[in-house]
Amino acid sequence: MKPLLITSALLFAASVRRPVFVAALACSLAYLASRGVALGRLPLIGPQDTLAFFSGSVGLMALPFIYDRRLSGVRWFCWGCGGLAALFAVLALPFPTLNMPLPPVLDTYWFELHVALAFFAYALFGIAALLGGLFLRGAGRPVLDLQYRAALVGYSFFSLSMVCGGIWGYYAWGTYWLWTAKELWTSILWMFYSLYLHLRLKGPAWERGFAWLGIAGFAITLFTYLGVSMLMRSSHSF
Fold it and tell me: Which percentage of the chain shows pLDDT scores above 90?
């Protein structure tokens, strides 16, 4: 199965055209599907599976945008999304695969929904950051509208993920909320994007600031996903 992940990483890294990007996404989804069939569940446990899932999520969430006629600089966008997906696929490779069944505390659809929706949101926040970069390079106002759309859909997914996580937490630990670093940074990320999306109402004077904050938001996203898991104690491993 790892050759599929390696192939997807290489193709993503070479994605300057849409057909190559779609081929990379197909390999990434095939890897995730093969892992899911082998495990009998979504591959969402451990660093290798979560990084690979994040990589595939970036490709999947980017697909509607690369075929949007309002997007100028499609090659730059494909290269940016492909590079991001390739990075996380490569980061997944050194880690061992965890083929164990889900522990009872995780064996619920609420957990799988919580994690999958969170990664879809993370991917869309990354796409919003890339679109913000394109706008700052002079891609035009329609790209900023696409950035807003990516962030808004990502925010919706993230809000649903928090709801599912609270329900899962109640079944697992008898409480909807634990005062750990992951939960706190999840709240910070949610509040950041709540404020960020409202900045769109400020009008054209805030356009460049809106684009820059979209890039900053993805930095907070990466810290919430990876930084907290590696540097702080939490109820989440990744």
Answer: 61
